[in-house]
């Protein structure tokens, strides 16, 4: 089966790792590590995993986790900046945190808040926490999100990053069957150039891209 990179669509890739359940390929163009399409879960299988999540705004521990992105992005926003939380999940929380800070928010999730009308708006910032590793078509989705940003707008992402082939073999992140795309700093730098955005890495699992 011909495999192309789900981020840049290149067919130039090489085996990166294999475990008991899946193969992992690395794109030679954008550096993304990805699971072949035929080894992904079905949408019903995906949702069954997500339904087990018990996140909520009342969970102080979850708020502390999200603060890794929230604190770094909120400090860069103008008062009243309008945002979209993409992939909000079954218990939207980051959007609540931004609303508490005075930022009007829209939310979107393909399973739990599938109103695609919000994907036609214009936003000062967009967040996606623990989302990009789940995307079957990250090139298309991230390009669409970047197109929703106002000039100077921010795309704030949280995802753990690929460090090395050696670390990958024992990485807990690949054990989640819904994780199918794994980004490195090199991948995000490629993406930023492709989208004409500036990129910074303010924390180990936080990436901020700003529309020029």
From TrEMBL:
The keyword Methyltransferase applies. InterPro entries: SAM-dependent_MTases_sf. One of its GO terms (molecular function) is methyltransferase activity. Gene3D superfamilies: Vaccinia Virus protein VP39. Transmembrane segments: none annotated. GO terms for biological process: methylation. Keywords: Methyltransferase, Transferase. The keyword Transferase applies. This is Putative methyltransferase associated with DUF414. It comes from Halomonas beimenensis.
């Amino acid at each position: 089966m011909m495999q192309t990179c789900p981020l840049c669509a290149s067919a130039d890739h090489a085996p990166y790792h294999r475990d008991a359940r899946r193969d992992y390929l690395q794109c030679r163009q954008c550096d993304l590590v990805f699971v072949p399409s035929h080894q992904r879960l079905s949408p019903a299988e995906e949702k069954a995993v997500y339904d087990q999540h018990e996140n909520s705004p009342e969970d102080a521990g979850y708020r502390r986790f999200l603060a890794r992105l929230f604190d770094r992005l909120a400090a860069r926003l103008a008062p009243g900046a309008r945002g979209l939380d993409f992939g909000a999940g079954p218990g939207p929380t980051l959007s609540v945190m931004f609303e508490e800070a005075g930022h009007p928010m829209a939310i979107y999730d393909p399973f739990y808040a599938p109103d695609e009308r919000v994907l036609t708006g214009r936003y000062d910032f967009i967040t996606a926490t623990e989302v990009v590793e789940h995307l079957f078509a990250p090139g298309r989705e991230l390009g669409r999100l970047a197109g929703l940003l106002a000039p100077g707008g921010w795309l704030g992402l949280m995802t753990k990053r690929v460090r090395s082939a050696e670390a990958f073999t024992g990485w807990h992140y690949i054990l989640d069957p819904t994780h199918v795309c794994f980004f490195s700093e090199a991948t995000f730098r490629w993406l930023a150039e492709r989208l004409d955005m500036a990129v910074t890495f303010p924390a180990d699992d936080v990436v901020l891209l700003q529309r020029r």
